[in-house]
Structures are given as structure tokens and as C-alpha cells.
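Risk register update: the risk of archive-format incompatibility is retired. Evidence:
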Amino acid sequence: MPTPVAPLDDLLTADFYRYQTLLSDEERKILLKARTFLREEVKPLVNEYWGKAEFPVELIDKFRGSGLAALAYEGYGEHRAAASHLLGGMLAMELGRVDASVATFFGVHNGLGFYSIYYGGDQEQRNKWLPAMATMEKIGAFALTEPLGGSDVSGGMRTTAKREGDTWVINGAKKWIGNATFADHVVVFARDVDDNKVKGFVVEKGTTGFKPVKIEGKIALRIVQNAEITLTDVRVPEANRLQNIKGFRDVAEVLRQTRSGVAWQALGVMIGAYELALDYAKQRVAFGRPIAKFQMVQDLLVKSLGNITASWGMLIQLARLQDQGIFRDEHSALAKEFVAARMREVVAWSREIFGGNGILLEYDVARFFSDAEALYSYEGTHQMQTLIVGKSITGHSAFVG
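Archived output:
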């Protein structure tokens, strides 16, 4: 019996190959609920707050009632059963489609912050922190990158932790830490001075010696409250050390799981920019006709749609590998590398279609264009992803050091 054809009004214009029909009916309902929430509650706010470089704190209360948090984690969130990676990916795409900053806020809390405790903590620690994170009563953050250590932080981490009885004393600095100015707790990674292994610690808001300062002057992800954190004799109990983080290999596992979410966000940014350009091309009149009738405009739109369609197909197969439990680091690395590069092309072509209007915030596409630069770099630069994949396919590591 043939599969029923999904109604077209459920599908995005950019879903040229009808990928959303791969979701179950229940999953489609969740996706459409999220789409409505983002359109009605998030989209009206983003340009104002992007311009001010401030975070709309009222959004946190709205997210609490959305049911979006913790969908990927069995036993947590509104639905309790873990969502498929395909649904989780498409939800990340929907977030990116509306605004990359809000997608990043949510990804830091629901991905990096939540998964660090879910994977790295023992059951007692999960019970302590995750229920409130699942309802977004408490907001989390993730502190790995340092002022002098980005791609090389695995071997060059300068933040240290020293055990004194049942207490750990942390000293150092972290940079580019999303949500850190208002998070209720931050997962901080530091190198144990005694065994030289990286360990993870949950540092709660207000802890003496923990000082996050907002980074000013950003041209991308301006809504995200990135901070530079200084840690001066920060004392945390042994109970706050994540028991299953026993070295950087465990940190890399967190990144492996969350990196695919960044690729889905990048797909969303592509789609958001493409939709804006397509609508504008149909409405903007030049030389007496809509610019959508011009061959060169159609060429840019079709190339954009090709990037979207190819990226979406790759991410669907990645989600299948994740659901089957057989996906590896190089799988998520290739997805992040490829989709982020295609995103960069699409936002540039979309901005080009707007001409001079493309640099005005009121037309939205300028925001997508700027924010894409941050997504292109975070959770592993383009070059780091190629080195991960390159090592896999050649059997030779080209990493320095």
C-alpha cells in the first residue's frame, strides 16, 4: 500500500525532496508545534535584540512551555521517551531557520550543557541537575575554549584543578562561553595538576572567584551572551566533579554528539536565508518586472536550493547512523565541515539577491549573513573537521604536535 502523501502546507518551501515526510505523524506534530512557537514567540524579537546585543530573557519562560527541551534524552523532558535523532536534527534546523543566536543559546543549554552532565555525570549528579534543566528552570553552559586555546585546547589547556581533600580548587580562564553571564551553572573543564588529565566540574552561579564578563563588539550571534570567564581559586566540592569525565577523550565524546546539531543549525540558517531571498525576488521589481524573472537571480536561487537539498540528505543519513548507534567522530565532522561551508555560500548568495537592502537589519538576511561566520567556526573549525576526516580516510594523522 503506498505511503500517504503529506499535505504540502506542512512542508517548507526549501524541502524540495520532501524530506520532512520521513518523520512519523507524531514527530511531524512536534515539529509543527515548534515551528509555530518559533514563528510567533521568537521571530518578532530577534532583530531588536540582535541590534542591541542583548538576550531577551523573557524567552526563557516561553521556552519552558514549549516542550522543546530535553527531547533527545530518555527519561527527561515533556515526552520522556528520547526523540529520534532525525526529529532532534529537524528541530535544530527550525531554530537556525529563525535565528542562529537563539539556536546557539538553546544548543548550549540543551546540547553541550545538558549532555555533559547526562554523559559525564553519575546517576546522583544527573538527578541533581538534569530535571531542572529539562524544564529550563535552570540554564546551563559549557566552558572549554580558553583565551589562548581553541582548536588546540585538548593538549594546551591552561585552566587547572587541584584537589584538596574533598574540594577542588580551579584557576584559569575560559573564553567565548555562551550563556555564561546568566547561566545557573557552568560545566568547566580543567586539567588536574596531579595526573594531567582533563576533568569536568559543575560550577554554580555565584561561586566565589568565578567571574564571567560579557564579550562586547561582536558582529555575529549578537544575542548570545558570550563571556570571558576568570576562575580565581574557585572551590567546588568533589560532588560537583563529573564522575565519568576521565580525560579529554570523554570531552571529545560530548563534542561528537553535539557537533551534528551545529550542522543541522547551519542547514536552518541556509533555509532561513534562502526563504528570505526567494520571497524578496518575487516581490522586488526592477526594470519593470520581478527580479525572480532574471536568469542570474534564478541561478543563485537554484544553487542555494541545491546546497540545502544535498546538506539535508547528508544529515538525514547521519541521523540514521546515530539512531543505529554506529556513527563515529568522522561522520559528524564531515557533516559539520560540509554543511557549514555550503551555508556560507547560501547566505552570501541570498544577501546578494537583496542588493543594497541586504545590509539592512530590517530585511533579516544581514543577520543570517553575519551569524553564519560564527557557526562556520564554532564546535571545531573547518580545518579541524577536515583533519578528523582526513585521518579517518588515510590512516595518517596530520595534526600538529
